[in-house]
Amino acid sequence: MIVKRNIFLIGPMGSGKSTIGKQLSKKLNMNFFDSDKEIEKKTGVNVSWIFDVEGEKGFRKREKKIICSIVKNNNIVLATGGGSIESKKVRDSLSSRGVVIYLKTSIEKQIIRIKSNKGRPLLQDNKSTYRILKNFAYTRNPIYKEISDLAILTDDCNIKEIISKILDFVN
Q1: How deeply is 120 buried, as exposed, middle or buried, from its count of CB atoms within 10 A (0-12, 13-18, 19+)?
Q2: Which of 54, 133, 136, 138 has the most CB atoms around its CB within 10 Å?
């Protein structure tokens, strides 16, 4: 019997949060939310546009508000934005409302997974992608680790294996 609780997926861009979240929610018969997609639905524009017009600070403000609203639901799987955990309010909301799962990935694997995605506003300059991701890892990885209930390295796992590890943990 699967115990239904909120499941929050955290980790860097390209770690598989949205992909895993969609399939995990189907398996558990839970509602799935992606914080970036919810922001886009609410604003009617894409994340890149928000970054261009409001900057990262404006985006993070919107992100914090939407995540803190979504986590009030029950029986959900939420894929968060990679930088959302920089907000203490977001961290506290996630930790208090469900199981926090950190999907870890190497920078090399991130680059492979995200190279074709033009909707990554923080990675518009391809020449500095590795350096940017390395800086994010340096500041964010300790936070991901600190607030997670479970950490899974996704580099060499397929979707089914990752979901199986999550199910083993939450059951």
Answers
A1: middle
A2: 133
